[in-house]
Amino acid sequence: MSFKFLKVSSYYRDFLTDYYEKFPEIRSKDYVHQYRHLMGQYFAWSDNYGRLLAEKGLETMEVVANATSMQKAWAVEMGFSPNLTLQEVLIKQIEVFRPEVIYFQDSITFNGRFISELRQRFPFVKLFIGNLCAPFTSAQVTAFKEFDYFTVCSSFFQQQFKRYGIDSVLIPHAFDRRILSRTLKENNFPLSPFIFTGSIFPDEGFHSIRLRVLEQLAKEKIPFSFYGNLPDNSRLGLLKRQASYLTSKTLDNIGLSLVTDKFALIRKGRNHKSLPHNLKISNSLYKIAKPPLFGIDMFKALSNAKIGFNIHGDCAGDYAANMRLYETTGVGACLLTDAKSDLYLYFEPNVEVVSYASAEECVEKVKWLLDNPVQCEAIAKAGQQRTLKEHNFENRVEVFYNELMRRNI
Q1: How far is CA 30 from CA 8, 34, 86, in A?
Q2: Domain identity same for 385 and 396
Q3: What is the torsion angle, in degrees rounded to the nearest 10, for the CA atoms of residue 94, residue 100, residue 103 and residue 107?
Q4: Are strands 354-356 and 334-338 parallel, antiparallel or unpaired?
Q5: What pTM was computed for the model?
Q6: Are 53 and 167 found together in one domain?
Q7: d(Cα 99, Cα 94) in Å, to the nearest integer?
Q8: What is the pLDDT of residues 277-309, one digit of tens each?
Q9: Rounded to whole angstroms, how far apart are CA atoms 140 and 161?
Q10: Residues 227 and 291 in one domain
């Protein structure tokens, strides 16, 4: 069966800023050139759904809705005004491509009234599919119900959706096996015994264990590489976080969650469970923190590390969900991750990955792995074999495709 499939993504603002700073010349290229170059960074899901579904006979299109220069290039090449807003460009893309199925990977920005308006305007679209792997509030539930169903990255979100009567399909994250050819051939990142690529969210409890572990590692002078953002602990930074929290809470409580969804700076306020206050972070951690890495650069750094550290945020509950599970094992680093009730479904603990239940146990296991390089390498190889065989995008897209077929599209 053949039909048209459109996937709509939004990339992290920090990634796009970093990308265009590295490749400023890309802005002047045509749409196809820009698209191929951006997909070649292997950020997030890259072009895997569109490319793999095309191999099954579907006509596909992938859109990164907030890649401004790329979207504007499409509009101009199609004869539309360069002054269209990004949302107007997306609507034109739907109008021109005429997909039967639209998959919104970013269902925080695009939901609710926007989806309802698309249904009315484009009756040729038979399915609107959402995706979620992030915290959400009860105020957003009504907006989410505009979708026909969702994909979710863990059972935790599936259970939450079930309570609200929202249909969902579990499709965990995955690893793109094409990345290995890039990390092997063109890798100039330094070798590292232990690496963490991620950030510390400035919210009490959200990354409290993550912070304690990193602080303990720094205190005990265990060598590790840290690429990521630390919170701005200045007075102004605190006031911004408090304003974001109060604004998002107010808008959600009065039924204007769509406004919160629209603005990233306000939306960040939902990460806070209470009015934010400054975290106590040592100067030693600020000194070793390097700028965050994204896409292929992150994979190169991970592949040159012996051990890769992972810890989930509170929103994951007691379930394994992070992309880092598959990114770290996929490139061949030994994954050290927090213990979750369903981790065994994806990896065999202490054989394919190493897990810990507390900050203290995490530090102990880091030391053990560093002192036992043979065992560390054996675990890394076993984890990589499991990921390359089972946790790849080919398998995940197969689940997605089978669900489409089940719904008689």
Answers
A1: 20, 6, 17
A2: no
A3: 70
A4: parallel
A5: 0.88
A6: yes
A7: 7
A8: 666 777 788 888 899 999 999 999 999 999 999
A9: 11
A10: yes
